UniProtKB/TrEMBL annotation:
Subcellular locations according to the entry: Cell membrane
Bilayer topology: Multi-pass membrane protein
Source species of the chain: Brumimicrobium salinarum
NCBIfam families for this protein: agcS
A Pfam family the protein falls into: Na_Ala_symp
GO molecular function terms noted in the UniProt entry: amino acid:sodium symporter activity
Annotated keywords: Cell membrane, Membrane, Signal, Symport, Transmembrane, Transmembrane helix, Transport
Protein name per the record: Amino acid carrier protein
InterPro entries xrefs: Na/Ala_symport
Top-level taxon of the source organism: Bacteria
Signal peptide residue numbers: 1-19
Similarity-based family: Belongs to the alanine or glycine:cation symporter (AGCS) (TC 2.A.25) family.
Membrane-spanning intervals of the chain: 247-266, 300-322, 328-345, 384-405, 425-446, 458-476, 488-510, 548-568, 591-614, 635-653, 659-678
Amino acid sequence: MKLAKVVFIFFMLSNFLYGQDETITNDNSLFTADIELEDVSQAIDDISVKVTPKGGRKPYKYIWNNENISIYNSSYTGWSEGDSVKVIVIDANDDSVEVKGYIKPNSFSEYVNNAMKPAVEHLQNILFASVWSDTVSVDEYVLKAPFALDAEKKDYRLKKWVKKNGEKVKHLEVIAILKDGDREFPFYAIGDGTLQYGKHDGEIISSNDLVYFTNKRGNRSEKKLGVINYDSPQPFYFKNLTNKSQGIPLIVVWLVCGALFFTFRMKFVQFWGVRHAIELVQGKFDDPTKEAGEVTHFQALVTALSATVGLGNIAGVAIAISMGGPGATFWMILAGLIGMASKFVECTLGVKYRHIKEDGEVFGGPMYYLSRGLSRRGGGFKQLGKILAILFAILCVGGSLGGGNMFQANQAFNQLAEIPGWEGFAAYGLYFGIAMAILVGVVIIGGIKSIAKVTDKIVPAMVAIYVISALTIIGFNYDNLGHGFNTIFTGAFSPDAIYGGFIGVLILGFQRAAFSNEAGVGSAPIAHSAAKTEEPVSEGIVAVLEPFIDTVVVCTMTALVIIFTGYAQDPEGLEGAALTSAAFSSSLGDWSLYVLSFAVVLFAFSTMISWSYYGLKAWTYVFGETKTAGLVYKSIFLIFVVIGSSVGLGAVIDFSDLMILGMAFPNILGLLIMSGEVKNDMIDYFSRIKSGAIKKFK
């Protein structure tokens, strides 16, 4: 009896003492959990979710059906309306309970966004279907404290290490105790391996050290608390403990294989044809007395460039580097070089099969060479051509309203709203959209000639602003230029395994390049078909300069800036355009944020006016080449400018952006079939150049 009393007293005392520490509290009651969901506003993607465990034994782990939410998070704001939330709560006894939640959309924008999600998912399943996939394995796991970026956490520290430096640890074993003010909670190991304490400013991180530091921008960034070295490669874990897989998307394979095929089929025309391309842009072969069309070679080039040089160069490169390291840049450059051949083939056909009305207005692009070019082959090709042309036109109209319009307006507005001191500007999205729509409308009402007159001034100006800023930073670091290129090259062949190894970085680089220069997508031939020339091959030659300027030159400069400013090694949690902006401002000062923001607005504006032309020609192909049909499309386009600036329609923009990539399927299929005639035309054209049958006029 006495022994029983002693045991009981010991149990109660230990329960009282340990109960003071939240990390090891024991509760023998039934283990359950409640979930609360709240729709914060009428805007999209702002559902607030909170999970409250009851009973069981603390601490708890939270496994969300969202890979970006940490196992430490019991709440999250930013869930999308119409999506099902599922959270598995696991206590210290490894007992678990599952809670689910769902909130219906309750506003127009929420209903539209939710209704578009199945279409986005379906298109993503097609475009990004993996032709090969494997689990990403890593050799180590970098330990960074959760919540360290929360501005409300003023006293966030490492209380103590539970495991010693160099000690073996197991997956989800407690390795340290973290302290958030008076609250304490465990820090878990991820994977089985050997713990190695981290260093900051040369000192090993130890008890009572803050787990964050002030970065170059004056913001809080997570310290590298340590690393777990694996004895053999283990799966890479997302924040919710699911595994990362690396796949090769079908759309990337389609674009890259097409580009490689055209490179060899056209005998590497993108390299030996550059000199002649420059002569054509300079107007040395222009015959003003004979050639039909609406714009010069140079105007056609800059109009097409205005649609590709833009956010892909600013944000796309930053995304590639933050996800795949500097080595991804090498594969972007290579993809740009082979993509030049795709541009040659599609833009040659764009001029060859264009349709010119009596008033001189040109109608051209993949819709016309797919239908006209394939119909010449007779049989089933005629029907195939019609189907591919209609499919391309529908995708092009959708892409022009989303990726070529709403996305551009939205990003331009957000860039301005993020300028320091301009925080209040975020409330004026509607007015910004109206102003942008008026400016765009003034230009596009006049057709391709008006668009060309604007782009041949804006594009050189905006590229000059961006390139001069980049060259200034590169000039400051010219001593490190060799190191910068070496970083890119070595990173391409020996990348950090966390990004999927060699294959992962290669695919990432190709993917971002394809999204940036649109080689093979079929948009550029619409602009180039309006060129004043009677020689289709000449315009194809001019088009090879596009991916070179867009990807090889501008993207490389962006990458070097990010490398030289140190953001390639430590992105500080920044992504996309924000990362590029931080790199520029850290070297040139905050004034560069205004310059870069101005450049982004110009990029967006020029992209919108060019894509309005692409969408217009696709629209009139379907609904008739009439002034009325054109006016209807232009009115719709301008309305979508306002919508893109003032309303959050995430899934709508995602879907229409994916439609741009979808254009590559019918386009490249047609290019492959007609590549033989393009090759014959190329041989004939250069033989006439050599013989003098085609003369210089300047």
